[in-house]
Specification:
The chain has about 450 residues and is an alpha/beta fold. The protein has three domains: about 120 residues, 2-Layer Sandwich (Gyrase A, domain 2), CATH 3.30.1360.120; about 120 residues, tRNA modification GTPase MnmE domain 2 (Four Helix Bundle (Hemerythrin (Met), subunit A)), CATH 1.20.120.430; about 160 residues, 3-Layer(aba) Sandwich (Rossmann fold), CATH 3.40.50. The chain is built from 15 helices and 13 strands. The strands form two sheets. Strands 3-4-5-6-2-1-7 form a seven-stranded mixed beta sheet. The chain has a six-stranded mixed beta sheet with strand order 9-10-8-11-12-13, sandwiched between helices. A hairpin with a 2-residue loop joins strand 4 and strand 5. Helix 6 runs antiparallel to helix 14 and helix 13 packs antiparallel against helix 14. The two termini are about 15 Å apart. It binds guanosine-5'-diphosphate. Guanosine-5'-diphosphate binds next to helix 8.
Length: about 450
């Protein structure tokens, strides 16, 4: 890493202070050239200094400068952070004066990328930095912190260590093939350890599904024919008049999104345009959109008017939804009932109305129950939190299962070792022990500049 990079690390806008961060081997001397106050090249590491940033004999801003010397810094390189006044003009002027010194503007995520490439953090920790910045709930923040502190990394390292030991044992076996005993011991051991590993990887994958819920929330779609009370339910859940409630059928044309939290887990709610046969072109597009949303949803709230018998439209909807991820909401139970819970055997059903707070609470309780939110919330285990990590874990599981199959089918032990080595590498890829430049570049592009 030759060049020096600089970026504004705080959000752009007016605020009390902004931080301009520079990383690289010349960062201290570069800022020293612009700084009036003391000789920054002579100060101790991790100290803060008061002074001014000056360019062409003109004071640009009054600043506090933090000097952090390699290697105990975020990027492991020398880092200087200039705390300047938070106005957009002042901050940009400080940045510009540093750029004028030949420093390059950092790309998105480049500080974190350097931290990774210089071995300061692994890939899951780098991803956790972004998750932490983007976390929208306390549970998501907690999960990101766990990952950032290296919990998942050490867990994966422990799995890799087991495989490494196993591979060493196999190596001995291959080197001393004349001893039948060793081969027998090896096969038994390989089988036992592989089975243990399979349980552990399975568990990690299962827990990671909760991790996704913690991080991204539950994608929830409300669906039902017009006038059954979808908007009212949405309003009650969200607690504000976001959807417009009217008596005229088909008013909710647009897809409205709202966010609530249940036990610290985000519920991202989408109200659909409804699903019904229509000749209206615009409405047709809405219907198609709604059908797609049903497919992608984690949770479907299918609202029915319990004071009316089921209509053809209701039956069609019941056909469209996946039972396992659907709650049938029998709304308007304050009126004389025509539908009861009994008629929906095998479905998750909630009988409710939007006129009382109990109605909303019973719906929330059902959601908590289905997604086991109490357990998710209290679980402090770190899980894999994105598709990249999860798909590598799934692949590792497959190669491990192939190794187990190989043992069971009495394949030569060195063939089994190939699958084990692949499992070892795939687990390594999760934490970035092996990686391709393309993936790394793509990954850090999604970061914000200055991080
Ligand atoms: P949508 O078209 O499915 O979104 O239905 P709305 O939320 O717009 O509600 C349609 C009508 O039903 C409105 O007049 C609401 O006030 C009424 N409504 C909604 N929920 C209930 C309920 O639980 N009980 C009763 N009695 N009326 C309700």
């Amino acid at each position: 890493m030759e060049d020096n990079i600089v970026a504004i690390s705080t959000a752009i806008g007016v605020g009390a202070i902004s931080i301009v961060r520079i990383s690289g081997k010349d960062s201290i001397s570069i800022i020293n050239d612009l700084f009036v106050g003391c000789d920054l090249t002579k100060v101790a590491s991790h100290t803060i200094h008061y002074g001014y940033i000056k360019e062409n004999d003109k004071i640009i801003d009054e600043v506090l400068v933090t000097v952090m010397k390699s290697p105990k810094t975020f990027t492991t390189e020398d880092i200087v952070e200039v705390n300047c006044h938070g106005g957009i003009i002042a901050t940009n002027k400080v940045l510009k004066s540093i750029l004028n010194k030949g420093v390059r503007l950092a790309e998105a995520g480049e500080f974190t990328k350097r931290a990774f490439l210089n071995g300061r953090i692994d890939l899951t920790q780098a991803e956790a930095v972004m998750d932490l910045i983007e976390s929208k709930t306390d549970s998501a923040r907690n999960q990101a912190v766990n990952q950032l502190t290296g919990k998942i990394s050490s867990y994966i390292e422990s799995l890799r260590l087991k495989i490494k030991n196993l591979l060493a044992t196999i190596e001995v076996n291959i080197d001393y093939p004349e001893y039948y005993d060793i081969e027998q011991i090896t096969i038994e051991k390989v089988k036992k350890v592989c089975q243990e590993l399979e349980v552990e990887i399975n568990q990690m994958i299962d827990e990671s599904k909760n991790g996704k819920i913690i991080k991204e929330g539950i994608k929830t779609v409300i669906v039902g024919r017009p006038n059954v009370g979808k908007s009212s339910i949405l309003n009650n859940l969200i607690g504000e008049d976001k959807a417009i409630v009217t008596d005229i059928e088909g008013t909710t044309r647009d897809i409205i999104e709202g966010n609530i939290q249940i036990d610290g887990i985000a519920l991202n709610i989408i109200d659909t345009a409804g699903i019904r046969k229509t000749t209206n072109k615009i409405e047709e597009i809405g219907v198609q959109k709604s059908l797609n949303l049903l497919k992608e949803a984690d949770l479907i709230l299918l609202v029915l008017n319990s004071s009316e018998s089921l209509t053809e439209n209701d039956y069609n909807l019941l056909k469209e939804v996946n039972k396992d991820k659907t709650i049938i909401v029998l709304n308007k139970n304050d009126l004389k009932p025509k539908l009861t819970e009994k008629e929906f055997d095998g479905y998750n059903v909630v009988s409710t109305n939007t006129l009382s707070i109990e109605g909303v609470n019973s719906l929330k309780s059902k959601i908590k129950e289905i997604f086991n939110l109490e357990k998710i919330k209290s679980s402090d285990r770190t899980s894999l939190t994105n598709i990249r990590q999860l798909s590598l874990a799934e692949q590792a599981k497959k190669t491990l299962q192939s190794a187990i199959k190989g043992v069971n089918n009495h394949l030569p032990i060195d063939m089994v070792a190939i699958d084990l080595k692949a499992t070892f590498d795939l687990l390594g890829e999760i934490i970035g022990k092996t990686y391709s430049d393309e993936i790394i570049n793509h990954l850090f592009e999604n970061f914000c500049v200055g991080k």
